[in-house]
Amino acid sequence: MSYQALDPDKTAVLFFDMLNRYHTNDEPLVLNCVRLRDAADDHGIPVFFAAADHRPDGEDAAMLFSDTNYALEPWPDPEHAHIGHNRTMVSGSDEIQILDALKAGPKDYVIKKHRWNAFHQTNLELSLRTRGVDTIVLCGGATRIGIASTAYGARDLDFNLVIVRDCCSDSLADTMDQFMERVFPFMARVRTLEETIAMMGAGIG
């Protein structure tokens, strides 16, 4: 294991919620993710997709109190309005399909998740351990939600992390900067796409 390199036999790329609901195939973030995916394929690094998957009736959503919605807008009626009541990303819908630009192939792993943390009650850890993976290259969005939750989960499970800054997204720019500059550096290596691809190349041989 090296600080400056990624061993292809011990590394996996994890795309978080790169789905039709959140992105279009031609946006810059997605094009960056395509380049990362291509580099992973070129170096024999396995690719994982964590994808939201929820019951149409919303009965798998916990009704948890919060002060605001995801946009940090206060609930008009906090006693009766919860994020769980606004459940989207329904199982089988087009919204939760992985973007065509990153379409999962037969050798890829699709992890259907029901919470922010992609490890929570899924087979993600088992699949990574079975492949001998100890390092996760993490990207997708939203940074303050799924990326952060999954990063903390990976940290608690003793996985090394590389978080690819220009392959992550968040609708709140200041929050994105805070995580990339003030939170993630003490639990991960935060790198650009170009730096990550170079690390993949340095791990060959």
What can you tell me about this protein's structure?
The protein has 205 residues and is α/β, with parallel strands linked by helices. The protein has a single domain, classed as Isochorismatase-like (Rossmann fold). The protein is 28% helix and 18% strand. It has 5 helices and 6 strands, in the order βαββαβαβαβα. The protein has helices at 28-42, 124-130, 143-156, 173-183, 193-202, and strands at residues 11-16, 47-52, 109-113, 135-141, 160-169, 189-191. Strands 3-2-1-4-5-6 form a 6-stranded parallel β-sheet, with helices on both faces. α1 runs parallel beside α5. The protein starts with 10 loop residues before the first strand and ends with a helix.
Search tags:
6-stranded parallel sheet; 205 residues; 28% helix; globular; 6 strands; alpha/beta; Rossmann fold
Strand-helix topology:
Elements (H helix, E strand, L loop, with lengths): L10 E6 L11 H15 L4 E6 L56 E5 L10 H7 L4 E7 L1 H14 L3 E10 L3 H11 L5 E3 L1 H10 L3
Parallel strand pairs: 1-2, 1-4, 2-3, 4-5, 5-6
Helix pairs in contact: 1-5
Number of strands: 6
Q: Termini, distance in Å?
A: 13 Å
Task: Identify low-pLDDT runs.
Answer: none
* Largest beta sheet: strand ordering: 3-2-1-4-5-6
- The total number of structural domains is 1
CATH superfamily: Isochorismatase-like
Determine the CATH topology.
Rossmann fold
- Report the principal-axis shape: globular
Let me know the largest β-sheet.
6 strands, parallel
Instruction: Just give the CATH class.
Output: Alpha Beta
What is the annotated CATH architecture?
3-Layer(aba) Sandwich
> What's the order of the H and E elements?
EHEEHEHEHEH
Kindly provide the radius of gyration, computed on alpha-carbon positions and rounded to a whole number of angstroms.
Answer: 17 Å
Indicate the mean pLDDT. 91
